[in-house]
Amino acid sequence: MFEHINQKKERLDAHRPLPKYTVKSLREKLLLEWTYNTNAIEGNTLTINETKVVLEGITVGGKMLREHLEVVNHRDAIHFVEEIVQKDEPLSEWQMKSLHHLVLKGIDDEYAGVYRDQQVFISSAEHIPPAPFFIKEEMEQLMAWYEQAETKKMHPVARGAMLHAIFVGIHPFIDGNGRISRLLLNLELMKDGYPPIVIKVENRIAYYEALDKAHTQEYDDFIKLVAGEVEDSLNLYVSAINKNTS
């Protein structure tokens, strides 16, 4: 499953460091697309051009304050992910809560960075997240799984996909679990030198269906979906290499 991904990653690594302005433009492109798509999946109605305008500090008329905050907050959360990667910090529950605080600040300050104290349900999914009093135990089990030797040996794409799926199955927060799970997926990939990926809003149905299967411990479809998005991001970087070397 990962043969093409490994080959493209090796090609990317062989040409690092990429030119400064190429890296800057790629980062800005992916930050915009990541922010637009992750929010659109959750129902944000801003278009990709409107998202770009909000990231530039301009208010879009006729749109809710919450939708503006979702864009700005997600950008700040991406910056925090980049900081974790640069510092090579190990994954922790504190990081997850901090990411959630960034995502929900100004939107729901009471629950920003705080595990939920109520039962929640995932719309259109058969899976029911655990009751609130099980969250601490489930998150400890997630961290134990993440830190075990077998998990460390997994391909980064599979490990990141499973981290996403297990986390969102726990659904530890009142709101914002999807955004956090996609941030954690990209955090895991970026730690291993992969560019961030974009789960595209047009793939939302396939994404939800694969996640629903993952909640029954059948992870293959979800890993394949993530692998496809990883290859798309690698293709973008490889195309930049080809243009710079042609």
TrEMBL record:
<feature type="domain" description="Fido">
    <location>
        <begin position="91"/>
        <end position="228"/>
    </location>
</feature>
<protein>
    <submittedName>
        <fullName>Fic family protein</fullName>
    </submittedName>
</protein>
<dbReference type="Pfam" id="PF02661">
    <property type="entry name" value="Fic"/>
</dbReference>
<keyword id="KW-0547">Nucleotide-binding</keyword>
<dbReference type="GO" id="GO:0005524">
    <property type="term" value="F:ATP binding"/>
</dbReference>
<keyword id="KW-0067">ATP-binding</keyword>
<dbReference type="InterPro" id="IPR003812">
    <property type="entry name" value="Fido"/>
</dbReference>
<feature type="binding site">
    <location>
        <begin position="207"/>
        <end position="208"/>
    </location>
    <ligand>
        <name>ATP</name>
    </ligand>
</feature>
<feature type="site" description="Important for autoinhibition of adenylyltransferase activity">
    <location>
        <position position="42"/>
    </location>
</feature>
<feature type="binding site">
    <location>
        <begin position="175"/>
        <end position="182"/>
    </location>
    <ligand>
        <name>ATP</name>
    </ligand>
</feature>
<dbReference type="InterPro" id="IPR036597">
    <property type="entry name" value="Fido-like_dom_sf"/>
</dbReference>
<feature type="active site">
    <location>
        <position position="171"/>
    </location>
</feature>
<dbReference type="InterPro" id="IPR040198">
    <property type="entry name" value="Fido_containing"/>
</dbReference>
